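Appendix B. Extra example for self-study. Work through it before the problem class; the solution is given directly after the inputs so you can check yourself.
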Amino acid sequence: MKLTYVLFNAFGIGGTVRTVINQANGMVARGHDVEIISLMRYWDEPPFPIDERVTITPMVDSTSGAHVDWDGFDGEEDTSWHESFPAGVSANEEQRHRLNALIRYLPVIEDRIVVTTKPSIDLFVERYTDPSLIRIVQEHTNFGYHNAEWRKAYHGVLTQMDALVTLTESDRVAYSAEFPNLRVERIPNALHTLDAPHTDFSRTQVVSAGRLDGNKGFDMMIKAFGKVVESHPDWTLRIHGDGPEEDRLRKLILTEHLYNHVFLMGATTQLDEELAKGSVFAMSSKSEGFGMVLLEAMNCGLPVVSFSCPVGPRELVNDGVDGFLVPEKDVEALAEGLVRLIEDESLRRDFSDAALKKAAEYGPDPINDSWEQLFKSLSGTK
Amino acid sequence: MAAETSEGADSHAEIGQVWPRDGHIRILGTVVSGGTPDEAPVDEPWTLRLTSRERRKVPVPTVTERIVNRLKRSVTRSAERTPARLYFPVAADGPHFEAVVPVRDLAVRDALPREHWDLHLVSARGGRRLVLRVGRHHDDMPGKKKIIAFPEQTEAGVAVLPYYTDSDHLSVRCARRGTGGSA
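Solution. Structure tokens for the complete assembly:
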């Protein structure tokens, strides 16, 4: 089969990029022809290991300093499409440049299955690819994520696609109810390997990771950890990732006098290794599309404590078996969950064993099987 | 009196915690050698030494300046030039140490617009001088300058901020405030 994944930025660090590259690697290893379209390119190499047989086609390549379109186009900007998409799509000049390049590329695609990975891109894939192609939407956020304007535009597009794939069961149910005529499947993200390093529980360290934005709730995690160190001053918290909230979180660490205990580590391309240095994983998200990093932590044998987001953690964590789910936005409960695990090494080890078993269900093979079955099944319908 | 100077190869003062608050900078740590706590006794109590990078570069005063300074000192002690090295007592328990630097001791009358003090623990062992850089290297967290920020404390118009250097050593930056000088 010939597969084209359309990605916002294959060269940025993030959950969607990581999972799409994992998937591309898995599919190319099974003998399929795989291409990734990336709207932009600022670096020579993606941040995650990618099979050399996977072709990456940037719509606009900026590695040389200049912004070069895939076809060398250097003419006048096409503005004719602006009115027919949500206003935010055409607000930014750089983004318009990339989308214009994409608009010229999409109609050229022939005889391939197109998998699109972000609502703002899905709109263009639906409009500009040949409708006789198999077109699949991969939804990385949860059902309730989109605002009214986006929901209207996005949901209009979905009815024209061949399938929608959600990451979680609760989203599958929600989309199936909304779109009774659309094929909706649930295929969770795959771990890139089951051979990740495992924690040895030797460090008095809690770890977390994610984009430093408001949705990840790291301010609540930091406050919770302030309560943890009152009784366990030898424990520290390392948070991996960067994002717009970094300055605010740093100020919080200063005002709470947690600079000896809470460390904002920045982004890492060695996430497994960093996770495995911890003895407990914490998650404080207000919402999650899937909670990939939670699964990656479990794959390193880490017991987890997480807010019980409706989507993601609630499906991934078996409360009291491989981790603790605590009430959403409840800082006190998050702290208590962490303290329970900190104080009970035997419980940490029990949870760790269960977490590794859970992670095995999300190994590359079973997930790639699901994708292959979907592709084959859809190929028979067109 | 120590006969020889040694930088204590393979040894340093490993920081556990730094607490810049309540008008002090409190530093807790462990003297390590070869990656493990250094239990060997020292000849004299450890002292924390702060060395100014900029103050050392102040040119030697001329004869006239020396005479003027001497006259000033005879009138008031406050006219004394702050030395390029400051010393603070260290409480030690085996290899573990605790040192406290009052912020007011760095907010000196002749504060430079911007000044950086490097921290060492100093003592002697077997007649050899031990000078150990204070830093944090054993926490598997290189590049602390971008990871850890400490709060700034201001005393007498001087902002005092401990920070990790590019090499994960601890230094203190002092910056004069309120005279248009930049931070």
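Self-check: The longest strand of chain B covers residues 114-125. If your reasoning did not lead you there, revisit section 3.
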